[in-house]
Amino acid sequence: MSFGNVVTGTISASRTLTLSNTGTGGATGIAVAVATTSTPTTPNQFARAGGTCGTTLAAGASCTITVTFSPTTAGAKTGTVTITASVTVSGSPVALSGTGVAATVSASLTPPTWNATCTGAACTGLLTAPTQILTLTNTGNATLTGITQGVLGGTNANQWTITRPLSTCGPAGGGQMLGQTTLAPGASCIVTVRCINPNKQSLFTIEERVALAREVVEPFDNVDVQAFEGLTVHFVRRIGARIILRGLRTLSDMEYEFSMTLTNNRLDPEVETVFLMADGEYSHVSSGLIKQVARFGGGDALDKFVPPELIAPIMTKMLSISEL
């Protein structure tokens, strides 16, 4: 029975021996001894790990003996499984062999490079923007541990985003549903990266946006504005709600929202999403369009697209950017 190569300090998968009583009478006094025959003989490199064999076996019956290999040092090892009983056991002792190998910790991320740019309208859709799946594979012979979620870096990190719901490397959380913090030899996990338009940046800080939104909805007593971090479904649950209202403008919005709705439903099936179609007068309006109108048309042009309370703050912000 061969165990092949096993990393030193670890335990192999178990191997199974089958003991069968081929006689017409019951066998008694069954004993199993596992020993190492290679030098040094101690500590024992092989061990009985379990099985169904006891001290007796009826005529025509069978039982199992499982054995593992746990090398303490590198090199070839040999051993035996000796089975004795009230009758002669044919095939005993069974020869064991295995080789201890030093642990090699290594991993690869493929593909090593990906060149893509995203400047058009397609970059606004989760399903339409250029996307690449990066695969992290354990190429060593030992378990890879301490795997974290992917992090963007470099001088152009703002041109990419990690799609957490479609990634598995690292612990679950932050939108990532499945988590893998360890990888067995040969196993892999993925990080899904999407190219985005670096020009699509928020004009206002989160605090400024909350303040402006509260000013706009002030006449409505049943509307509250709150900022949150983390998953939307978690926020919905925290405030005691059950329904998410989402606005749709174009087909590209639908593709993105469809993916997010499926993800939210997987995270919390009791939270429903309701879509509201934009009026045709505003279905073409986007943040990028508002910025262009403000830059080239001024406040007089903005009043056709945004509430009056937002015109002055937008123009002030655009002026401060142009002066940088």
Question: How are the secondary structure elements laid out?
Answer:
Layout: E1 2-7, E2 15-20, E3 31-36, E4 46-51, E5 62-69, E6 75-84, E7 94-101, E8 107-110, E9 131-138, E10 160-162, E11 188-195, H1 206-216, H2 232-238, E12 243-248, H3 251-267, E13 272-277, H4 287-302, H5 308-322
Parallel strand pairs: 1-7, 12-13
Antiparallel strand pairs: 2-5, 3-6, 4-5, 6-7, 8-9, 9-11, 10-11
What does this entry look like structurally?
This protein is of the alpha+beta class and 324 residues long. The chain folds into three domains: 100 residues, Sandwich (Immunoglobulin-like), CATH 2.60.40.10; 89 residues, no CATH class; 117 residues, 3-Layer(aba) Sandwich (Rossmann fold), CATH 3.40.50.620. Helices cover 20% and strands 26% of the residues. The chain contains five helices and 13 strands. The strands form four sheets. Strands 1-7-6-3 form a four-stranded mixed β-sheet, with no helix packed on it. α4 packs across α5. The radius of gyration is 33 Å and the shape is elongated. The protein starts with a strand and ends with a helix.
Strand content: 25-35%
Mean pLDDT, all residues: 88
Radius of gyration: 33 Å
How much helical structure, as a percent, in the residues? 10-25%
The largest β sheet comes out as:
4 strands, mixed
Poorly predicted tracts of residues: none
CATH topology of the largest domain: Rossmann fold
Please provide the ordered H/E string of secondary-structure elements.
EEEEEEEEEEEHHEHEHH
When the domains are counted, the total is: 3
The geometry reads as elongated
Per DSSP, the total helix count is 5
